[in-house]
Amino acid sequence: MGIKGADVSFYLGLPNEADPFKSELYSFIHPNLDDASEHLQVVVLQLDNGLLINYFPKTPKGHATLEYFRLKEIATNSFSKPQGLEITLPSVTLPPEIFRALSELVKHPQ
Q: Is residue 1 one of the residues assigned to a domain?
């Protein structure tokens, strides 16, 4: 997909950072420093010829990963396509406090 290339906008540290290999210095999930499942839930379901692949962010870092790598573009839901339905993920522009509250509700439903 050629998304990242030479871009370093996701790096939050200083150019002369003593230890640049810290998770908190990256705005999206770092493949060597983060456990992706803590930040992003991947749902894959295949039933006969139907296929569902979707990504659900659990944290702001998960949201950043979803957006930066355009994961919505590769999400698949062949179950809804014949019905003309589209799956829409929650807005990534939610204020952080609302995002955290919703995340807690998802983790611990009442």
A: no
